[in-house]
């Protein structure tokens, strides 16, 4: 009996050694904007843990915005509170890199070999690079689109099947929608929160934020003047009130606004909020300069923060999975963001037939050739710079300053926040 017991004991030890170890590595993951990303993150992490039972994903408290997200990470950097992985706005990767907080993914990319086989082309990889350094992998990418209430457009004499293609046409039709009365407004342009939608107007006019060596502000040039003049005309001619971001979204979803301009990433929430109250349509956002105009690439990238070697290996697996074809196949239909993984976009297994069946989602991808990086200001004052621009845009919208006054004031303040050369 003792001999048999020893055999069973030895077999048990051998079996235990042969079985995979579960939950050996726990990764703490931080992400922004739970209204957009909570369900997406839950779905991706669940699938990842099913395929990688030796890695456990736990989430830190999410941040409401990209700005809050970067400030949280910078406060936690080097402490026990810092997560192992974070998702950071594309325009804030520069801040992480300048402070050497993020892990350089270059060696991991090189070791991986052919990233294009996983759907990561050089173009996609560059979205999350800073001065050639691979700071992250682009996770969710977006561009600004036009949402419109087809019922109000028709009531105002427009053609819902042929939406406005210029800002002049948008503003004229917005004014007609406002004139319908009954508490209806013409336009909601999401200028609040950050500089992204200002970039849509500025880049759409062929402008840029700073000069080539980043020593001086360039957004107050002729292109910037055209951009803020369009914003003022939305108010004076197009029937745009002084909305907060939530109020504007709620008013549009309630059928009280004709046009809404914001990220394609809000599409799924907008579809849910509109329901059957009216016929929702989407289209390209107009460019002030249709030839030279571009659009800012919004969204975020997955960034590895942990310096622990074992955790880095696990974190790299998660980063590739989240930003890879499966992750993209969850992000796009779950939010409205455009696909940032070429394998996901082309493969029938993922999103190959999605856009044919879901025409509301087509506006974002149709603008991808116009997308350029979301500009990241140099130095430590990036968040302050953004807020300064927003504060001055608010003066245009509430008509307490002329467009040129607000633009020049913003330029003067921002120039004082730039690093000395």
Report on the structure:
The chain has 421 residues and is of the alpha/beta class. It has two domains: 193 residues, Periplasmic binding protein-like II (D-Maltodextrin-Binding Protein, domain 2, 3-Layer(aba) Sandwich), CATH 3.40.190.10; 192 residues, Periplasmic binding protein-like II (D-Maltodextrin-Binding Protein, domain 2, 3-Layer(aba) Sandwich). It has 19 helices and twelve strands. Strands 1, 2, 3, 6, 11 and 12 form a six-stranded mixed sheet that branches. Helix 2 links the parallel strand 1 and strand 2. Helix 11 packs across helix 12. The longest helix has 18 residues. The termini are far apart. The N terminus is likely disordered.
- CATH domain class of the largest domain: Alpha Beta
Strand content: 5-15%
User: Termini, distance in Å?
Assistant: 83 Å
The unreliable regions are 1-23
Primary descriptors:
SBP; 15% strand; ABC transporter substrate-binding protein; periplasm; disordered N terminus; 4-stranded mixed sheet; D-Maltodextrin-Binding Protein, domain 2; 6-stranded mixed sheet; alpha/beta
């Amino acid at each position: 009996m003792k001999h048999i017991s020893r055999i069973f004991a030895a077999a048990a030890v051998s079996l235990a050694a042969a079985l995979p170890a579960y939950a050996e590595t726990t990764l703490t993951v931080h992400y922004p904007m739970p209204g957009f990303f909570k369900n997406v993150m839950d779905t991706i992490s669940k699938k990842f843990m099913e395929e990688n039972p030796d890695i456990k994903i736990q989430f830190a408290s999410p941040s409401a915005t990209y700005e809050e997200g970067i400030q949280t990470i910078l406060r936690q950097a080097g402490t026990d509170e810092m997560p192992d992985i974070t998702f950071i706005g594309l325009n804030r990767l520069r801040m992480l890199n300048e402070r050497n907080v993020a892990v350089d993914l270059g060696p991991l990319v090189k070791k991986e070999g052919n990233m294009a086989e996983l759907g990561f082309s050089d173009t996609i990889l560059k979205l999350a690079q800073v001065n050639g350094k691979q700071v992250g992998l682009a996770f969710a990418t977006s561009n600004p689109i036009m949402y419109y209430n087809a019922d109000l457009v028709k009531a105002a004499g427009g053609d819902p099947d042929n939406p406005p293609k210029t800002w002049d046409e948008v503003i004229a039709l917005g004014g007609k929608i406002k004139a319908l009365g009954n508490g209806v407004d013409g336009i909601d342009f999401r200028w609040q929160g950050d500089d992204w939608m200002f970039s849509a107007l500025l880049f759409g006019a062929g402008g840029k934020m700073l000069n080539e060596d980043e020593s001086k502000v360039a957004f107050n040039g002729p292109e910037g003047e055209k951009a803020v003049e369009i914003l003022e005309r939305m108010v004076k001619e197009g029937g745009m009130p002084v909305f907060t971001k939530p109020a504007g979204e709620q008013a549009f979803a309630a059928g009280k606004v004709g046009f809404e301009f914001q990220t394609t990433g809000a599409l799924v929430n907008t579809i849910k909020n509109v329901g059957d109250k009216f016929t929702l349509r989407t289209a390209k956002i107009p460019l002030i300069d249709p030839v030279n105009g571009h659009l800012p690439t919004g969204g975020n990238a997955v960034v590895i923060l942990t310096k622990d070697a074992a955790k880095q290996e696990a974190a790299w697996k998660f980063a590739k999975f989240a930003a890879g074809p499966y992750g993209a196949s969850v992000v796009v239909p779950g939010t409205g963001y455009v696909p940032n993984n070429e394998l996901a976009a082309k493969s029938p297994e993922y999103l190959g037939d999605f856009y044919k069946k879901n025409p509301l989602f087509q506006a974002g991808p149709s603008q991808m050739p116009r997308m350029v990086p979301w500009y990241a200001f140099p130095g430590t004052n990036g968040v302050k710079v953004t807020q300064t621009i927003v504060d001055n845009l608010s003066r245009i919208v509430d008509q307490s300053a002329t467009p040129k006054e607000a633009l020049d004031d913003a330029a003067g303040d921002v120039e004082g926040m730039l690093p000395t050369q």
